[in-house]
TrEMBL record:
A Pfam family this chain is assigned to: NUDIX
InterPro entries noted in UniProt: His_Pase_superF_clade-1 (IPR013078), His_PPase_superfam (IPR029033), NUDIX_hydrolase-like_dom_sf (IPR015797), NUDIX_hydrolase_CS (IPR020084), NUDIX_hydrolase_dom (IPR000086), Nudix_hydrolase_domain (IPR051325)
Alphabetical UniProt keywords: Hydrolase
Name of the protein described by the UniProt record: 8-oxo-dGTP diphosphatase
Record EC number: 3.6.1.55
GO molecular function, one term: bis(5'-nucleosyl)-tetraphosphatase (asymmetrical) activity
Annotated source species: Plantactinospora soyae
Family matches, as CDD domains: NUDIX_Ap6A_hydrolase (cd03673)
Group of enzyme by EC: hydrolase
Methyltransferase among keywords: no
Coiled coil feature spans: none
GO terms classed as biological process: AMP biosynthetic process; ATP biosynthetic process
Length: 306
């Protein structure tokens, strides 16, 4: 039987130096749970997670780290899978009365754990508690499809996105906007800048061109190039703000392997192979990469670093 798909969030905020998380009460079941709900038809699980948190808890959440999904049987015996994200509370709004939530509480982790009605929610909260505080988010994507190099007669840097690439760029924009980036940076090739253009229009922000995210030039050392890109990502993380970056296929895997080396000693670049029009949500604690969650507009989300 195909599982029912749902998504939700562990939404957190600070209150007098204490981390509080949000739990909701559903009178229909008289239970306390984390805010979550079923995906709408064709909806991406990350979009659904943010929407459900807003509708049930009246919170505008900014996703940070994808937590391990939860699998269980519903009351009618049907299987269900719920994808959870940790989220920073960034405002209020979006509550929908028809969600059947009649009470929302912000509680310290220990109190929330004691109140939750289901062991699987307790496990999710435990996974969240094990994370270090996230201080910055970077959405790193590879440019969307731009046809074949051999069929383009002009300079390769001028090769534009094709029809499929433009569609993927719009899908990525909707997802990247959820992390509220304040800077948009791109390698110089036209296809890279165009990949971020829908996001730039959505947020009314410029795309900054940065050569540090470009593929190595002829004669340039590929390792040094990856180290420079990794350093540029760390510089963004140190600012404590969110950003979206478009880079290229010969840069992203090695740069992420370098960043992940402290938590993934093998540093295997193949772990971070990135298809065109896909990418990663990178969560940093100061200057350390603590999580990389694969981001794909076609709905393939997996955790790579934790």
């Amino acid at each position: 039987m195909t599982p029912v798909r749902a998504a939700g969030g562990v939404v957190w905020r600070r209150s007098d130096d204490v981390v509080e998380v949000c739990v909701v009460h559903r009178p229909r079941y008289d239970d306390w749970s984390l805010p979550k709900g079923k995906l709408d038809p064709g909806e991406h699980p990350l979009t659904a997670a943010v929407r459900e948190v807003a509708e049930e808890a009246d919170v505008r959440g900014v996703p940070q780290v994808r937590l391990p999904p939860v699998h269980y049987l519903m009351r009618d015996g049907a299987p269900k899978v719920v994808e959870f994200w940790s989220m920073r509370a960034a405002g209020s709004g979006g509550f929908q009365p028809q969600t059947e939530v009649d009470d929302v509480r912000w509680l310290p982790l220990g109190d929330a754990t004691g109140l939750l009605s289901y062991p699987h929610d307790v496990t999710v909260l435990g996974n969240f508690a094990a994370l270090p505080p996230v201080t910055a988010m970077v959405g790193l994507v590879r440019h969307a499809p731009a046809g074949k190099r051999g069929t383009w007669s002009g300079p390769d840097t001028a090769r534009p996105l094709d029809t499929a690439g433009r569609e993927q760029a719009h899908a990525l924009a909707e997802l990247l906007a959820l992390v509220r980036p304040v800077r948009l940076l791109s390698a110089a090739p036209r296809r890279c800048v165009q990949t971020l253009q829908p996001l730039a229009e959505l947020l009314d922000r410029p795309v900054e061109v940065d050569s540090l995210f470009a593929e190595p030039a002829p004669g340039q050392d590929a390792v040094e190039n990856a180290l420079a890109a990794a350093g540029a990502l760390l510089d963004l993380a140190r600012t404590g703000t969110s950003a979206a970056v478009c880079s290229q296929g010969k840069v992203i895997p090695e740069a992420l392997a370098r960043l992940a080396a402290p938590t993934n000693p093998t540093g295997r670049a193949q772990d971070f192979q990135t298809a065109k029009g896909t990418g990663w949500l990178l969560a940093f604690a100061a200057d350390r990469l603590v999580a990389a969650s694969r981001l794909d507009g076609a709905d393939r989300l997996t955790a790579a670093v934790s």
